[in-house]
Amino acid sequence: MNSESKRKFDLLQEKSAPFKALLYDVDGTLADNMHAHKAAYVATANEYDIDLNDDIVDELAGWPTVDVAEEISKRYNKEIDVNKFAKRKSEIFITRFIRDTTPIDYVLEHLLANIGKKKIGLVSGGSRSTLNITLEVIDIHGKFETLVAAGDTPEGKPSPQPFLLAAQHLGVLPEECLVFEDGEPGVQGAIAAGMGWIRVDKL
């Protein structure tokens, strides 16, 4: 890690000290791949004759892909089968972009430094199949105790449901959890769940 990453790592260690469980978002938090997700959304939207402004991906960071597709449908006034859109977006992401993923070093190092000291969970709006490949690329399979993915709860972020399910899996109270996020929907979900939170992109 360079000195700036080390500073951020130390800050994460300090802020997480009082908590029993750490809940990490994946895309944009542990994995530096939001540029790839944006490219996949733009390419998929293009197949529907939509010239997508990729700012929407930042705005809705953490939403399940089907919900993002529904929002795109509304904003661009296009009839979209949201499940087909989500499936196609995942295909494009996996086949064309996923191998470009690198870890966000200070967040990954923080997770690794806390194995065996705190309970660790991942909470993502991504599909489990895509997440599994991302986790393989950044090499953290088996280094966490639970993974809550899209579809595991009736509502995704910004609902608190995914975070509360992760806490339940880990056997901890919501207030004993610290959430690591890079997007506003995830922060809203953490707040609604009664958990602590950190925006890793704002350190």
In short, what is this structure?
The chain is α/β, with parallel strands linked by helices and 203 residues long.
Walk me through what this model shows.
By secondary structure, this protein is of the alpha/beta class. The protein has helices spanning 3-16, 34-47, 55-59, 65-75, 82-97, 105-113, 128-137, 161-170, 184-192; strands spanning 21-24, 31-32, 102-103, 119-123, 146-148, 177-181, 196-199. The strands form two sheets. A five-stranded parallel β-sheet has the order 5-4-1-6-7, covered by helices on one side. Helix 1 packs across helix 6 (105-113) and helix 2 packs across helix 5. The radius of gyration is 16 Å and the shape is globular.
Strand neighbour order, sheet with most strands = 5-4-1-6-7
Which sheet architecture does the biggest sheet show? 5 strands, parallel
Strand segment count? 7
Order of helices and strands: HEEHHHHEHEHEHEHE
CA-based gyration radius: 16 Å
- Helix and strand content put the structural class at alpha/beta
| Overall shape | globular
Strand content: 5-15%
> What is the overall number of helices?
9
Q: What is the first-to-last residue Cα distance?
A: 15 Å
Topology record:
Blueprint: H1 3-16, E1 21-24, E2 31-32, H2 34-47, H3 55-59, H4 65-75, H5 82-97, E3 102-103, H6 105-113, E4 119-123, H7 128-137, E5 146-148, H8 161-170, E6 177-181, H9 184-192, E7 196-199
Parallel strand pairs: 1-4, 1-6, 4-5, 6-7
Antiparallel strand pairs: 2-3
